[in-house]
Amino acid sequence: MTREWWSICIFLMLSVQGTARAADEPDWSDTAVIDGHFALGVGAAFNRFDTNYQFTDKESGASIFVDGEGTLGLPRTNISPALYGMWRIGEKHGIGFHYFSSSREGASLEVDRDIGDLNITGLVTVFDRSRFYYANYAYTFVDNKTSQVNGILGLYGIDLKLGFEAEGDITINDVPVVGGFIKDEVNQLIPLPVIGIDFWVAVAPRWALGSKLALIGGSYKEYTALVVDASIRARFQMTDHVALMLGALYFNGDIDIDENDQRQEISYGYDGFVLGLDFNW
């Protein structure tokens, strides 16, 4: 996480706590701190992406470096559906989940350039159809009318689908590619452990602010990854069972996939915001 994001998170925590202490004691009968036994949220995520990846053939040593948004016309922004929820299974125990996807494909771009050891004079198309699945167990350390603090342990499924296609006059290390067509892609589902903290503080009746910070990482088979997933959220309880939620998102990860014939090094990041409705009982 960048220094700017650390500063924002720390500032938000201090501001929220200071505001709650300084305010006159309100009527918390309509508290906005997450309550009830079950909540389901649906919304839309508006994100700006920064991704790149490198393929290295172990036998020849030839590498292909793809900077999709920077040089090859992959759309930098995307609007996609988001689904999230929580089920409190005990006084201090709960489970949660969320789902998010990216659906980006660049128009065929005419290029005459080197992409690592690959030289292309022709058309290149890049795409990102990745999906992200997250399920966690939450233990509640603090739960009262004005605040809630949860520790998180879970599993993050990063389903990467990144790649490119090129056709035309193509060479790798000055050796022509037969047929004038090449396609390479990352197509891997990577399950990784996650640990983090999620807290909410009510700042007024029906209004609450929250923040989540999760670290995702480790090794599984041929995969190694380290990811930071953070969010800052505001929640307004419109009715007894419906709330409006607005959140700022940050995700940044470095993922290595070391297979028998090829090594894939991926840098995947996005930031943006999500707008949704929570239905809670």
Descriptive overview:
This protein has 281 residues and is mostly beta strands. It has a single domain (35-280), classed as Lipocalin, CATH 2.40.128.90. The chain is 9% helix and 69% strand. The protein has helices spanning 3-22, 68-71, and strands spanning 38-57, 63-66, 77-88, 93-101, 104-105, 109-115, 118-128, 131-143, 147-172, 175-176, 181-204, 207-220, 223-237, 242-258, 262-280. It has a 10-stranded antiparallel β-barrel with strand order 1-3-4-8-9-11-12-13-14-15. The radius of gyration is 22 Å and the shape is elongated. The model is unreliable at 10-25 (pLDDT under 50).
CATH topology: Lipocalin
Total strands = 15
The largest sheet has its strands arranged as 1-3-4-8-9-11-12-13-14-15
CATH class: Mainly Beta
Q: What is the general shape?
A: elongated
**Overall structural domain count:** 1
- The gyration radius over C-alpha positions equals 22 Å
CATH homologous superfamily, by name? OMPT-like
- Average of per-residue pLDDT values: 87
Distance linking N and C termini? 35 Å
The secondary-structure element order is HEEHEEEEEEEEEEEEE
Low-confidence stretches: 10-25
Largest sheet: 10 strands, antiparallel, barrel
Count of helices?
2
Q: Structural class from helices and strands?
A: mainly beta
Q: How large is the share of residues in beta strands?
A: over 45%
Named at the architecture level, the CATH assignment is: Beta Barrel
